[in-house]
Amino acid sequence: MSDSPHSAQTTTPGEGAVRRFLRATEIDPRLLGMVGALLLIWLGFHLYGVWVLGEGSFLTPRNLWNLSVQTASIGIMATGMVLVIITRNIDLSVGSIVGVVGMYTGLLQVEWLPPMMGLGNPMIWVIAVVFGITLGALIGLFHGLLIAYLAIPSFIVTLGGLMMWRGMAFLASSGRTISPVDTTFALLGGGPYGAIGATGSWILCAIACAGIAWAMMRGRAARKLHGFALRPIWAEYVVGGISASVVVIATLVVNAYPWPKGILKDYYAKLGQDVPEGAFIAHGFAYPVIIMVAVVLMMTVLMTRTRFGRYVFAIGGNPEAAALSGINTRAMTVKIFALMGALAGIAAIIASARLNSATNALGDLDELMVIAAAVVGGTSLAGGVGTIYGAIIGALVLVSLQTGMVLIGFGDGSYRKIVIGVALVLAVYLDIVYRKRIK
Amino acid sequence: MVDRTGTPLVELRDISIAFGGIKAVDHVTVDLYPGEVVGLLGHNGAGKSTLIKCLSGAYRKDSGQILINGQEVEIRDPRDARAQNIETIYQTLALADNLDAASNLFLGRELVNSFGFVDESKMEAETRKIMGRLNPNFRKFNVPVSALSGGQRQSVAIARAVYFNAKILIMDEPTAALGPHETQMVAELIQELKKQGLGIFLIEHDIHAVMDLCDRAVVMKNGQRVGTVDVKDVTDDDILGMIILGKKPPQAY
């Protein structure tokens, strides 16, 4: 079989260079648009700092590292919200699930387990994590059962859940803040010790680049096997090169953010040494970010490579057709909500670990950020359309707006809300315009 | 000529189904032999589609028996029907508009590789093969089916029914949305499938199409069977009389 490139590419002269490039590389133009918007936001905040405040503080290793950590819990939940919205449902309860799961995992590791197992027992954090994810999944499962088998609209079930679980979170501890959490558990929230360091980051970077190369070669081999049109070889290199560059740049950034002086002193004091001259210990990728990347990879495989993902899209496109094709749409709904709950459980673990405490306000209003992230990332509320990577970029956009406003001195909550509100509506409008033009 | 001496491929015996007190299908008995096309006729609301949905698994009958090759079977959902090699082309086509042709063709029966992952390339290759046979002009393999014309969508729905080696095919107004050329293609396909020994239930409003394509016609009215006729024994007017007046000609049984 010959390596024939796209025939269309050679037969349509007169189309613009950009369009030709997109066609050859098969990059989704909307992905490009979202990434462009994100970079513009970043640059805008940075330049505003440079010009108006005399110091650009957005595009610094420190801020970008913090941004990545802050995005983790919203981003993880947004990947699940994509499935919920694709199947024409909504989940308003995720913020409250974060609250109740965070509270019970907090109580478990601070008040219940230590008397039994001894404070600092190395199994405590493992039990807390398993418990948190399971509790989240069970709550989601319960919502799913009500939606699928009692035919109560998801809006209502999860609106009820929004209020109920928040109330439960308060009652669980009578409104107390549970703190501090297990020391190992706290690492899952990031912080200087909650990151893998420079060497670990480079190892991860190498694995990721190898993975990209492997995935691209496998994709090409599969197309060749069935005699489909291949991407021109230069396009393969461009796509692979861009993907690898993003990984390398991210690694360089997180490795350029050093531990602060206090942590250095603490670290060397434990070793019984003085802080050496010019000591530089990089953070590297934070654990919550690594967890998010792992979740994104798994969810992407789930959505694009498994029957489950196929059925999610089919149900969103035509629920009746999906049922007539023998898909058990009710069981699917239950599974999707259980998955959403489990992801909210993971988010709760990260959020409470990051705060080093469980409060009953944990995750408050997260549901709106999560839904907004999915929608900004191109998930259609009409159902049937959405991507995991879109949701992550959407989460990055929203968290960037949030932290950016703080950095340039508009930290007051009202400004942030206005900007994020405008961004949400604008993003959806641009998406509608784009879709119309495609047709 | 169809040999109707052996065991019928399908027997629907005394089927009834009601929706909130309205008897949509009222003690109807129909059979179908291998290599035969049986037309189902009647006004809108006569109960044709409802009857056939009891066979395709979309509805569950209230009473009656379904026999395949003389064996009684229980059809509770579309999966049960598929397990009996019953395939259905619905009037609405039942396509997921946001998915491409291959995804629709294999919906619910995706090909997976040894890791359990959906084998997209293989499904597309298979789709290309079958579409090459059914509709050689079909080129739009990588776009959602919402971007296809009515005829192209129809051929995806037909391909889905034919690909999985159906023994019993149900076609609910397969040509309602088609132009003359595509209608002709469907007619040729029905003849070919007949030769292969499939049994086909054809729901159709167009009497001429029924006279051309079917061996027997079953006429329904108000949920009940008016009568069954051998198409070659009757005229258009006889059938029209059955549909409109519920009048049973002497040839009918």
Describe this structure in words.
Chain B: It is found in: Cell membrane. Chain B: One of its GO terms (molecular function) is ATP binding. Chain B: Keywords: ATP-binding, Cell membrane, Membrane, Nucleotide-binding, Repeat, Sugar transport, Translocase, Transport. Chain B: This is ABC transporter ATP-binding protein. The complex is a heterodimer of chains A (439) and B (253). With 439 residues, chain A is mainly alpha-helical. Chain A folds into 2 domains: 28-194 and 286-438, ABC transporter involved in vitamin B12 uptake, BtuC; 196-284, no CATH class. Chain A contains 18 helices and no strands. In chain A, helix 5 (94-117) packs across helix 15 and helix 9 packs antiparallel against helix 10 (233-255). Residues 1-11 of chain A have low confidence and may be disordered. Chain B has 8 helices and 10 strands. The two termini of chain B are 19 Å apart. Among the domains of chain B are: 1-37 and 65-85 and 198-236 and 245-252, P-loop containing nucleotide triphosphate hydrolases (Rossmann fold, 3-Layer(aba) Sandwich), CATH 3.40.50; 94-164, no CATH class. Chain B is an alpha/beta fold. Chain B is globular, with a radius of gyration of 18 Å. The model of chain B has no long low-confidence stretch (mean pLDDT 89). In chain B, helix 4 (120-134) packs across helix 5. In chain B, the strands form 2 sheets. Chain B has a 6-stranded mixed beta sheet, sandwiched between helices. Chain B has helices at residues 48-56, 78-83, 101-105, 120-134, 150-163, 180-195, 207-213, 236-245; strands at 10-19, 22-32, 37-41, 63-68, 71-73, 86-89, 168-172, 199-203, 216-221, 224-230. In chain B, a hairpin with a 2-residue loop joins strand 1 (10-19) and strand 2 (22-32). In chain B, 32% of the residues lie in helices and 25% in strands.
